[in-house]
Write the structure tokens for this entry.
Amino acid sequence: MKGKVRRLNSCLFLAMMLVYISGCTGQQNQSANDNNDTTIVKVHTKKSIDQTVTNQAKEKIIKEEEVSAVKAVNIDKELLMAIKVDQFHRFQLKKIKKNVKTDLEKAYPDYKVLVSTDQKIYWELEKLEEKLQKDKTKKKTLKKEFNNIKNLMKEKA
């Protein structure tokens, strides 16, 4: 009887160790995939809407270790930026947002910079970037959408 109990205990122990080890390796693979998601889409337009400041700002901010993705658009000396922050750094959102904003204000002192960590703002800027990329928007409608996003950002603050 004691032999069966010992054998059962050792089998349960081995099964628990296998479950634990397989769980740990899955987590490592997932975090490796998350790090590869830090790509930047540069916005190029054929029209008179220059986005070089936006592209430079994106390159500068994506280098921050806390930031996983960036979307931005600029019009008439105003720069709107939305950033995604890694899950581990979500507790420091205000600090990260402030650091990003001060970095951009130092780099582009003649621009009015607005930064957001809100997911909705990120999605709206993503849509606007896609329209700019496809050249499917006029400057007037672009400015209207830009101002709508800016108002949303002010509402959230």
About this structure: The first strand starts at residue 67 and ends at 75. The beta strands are 67-75, 78-85, 112-116.
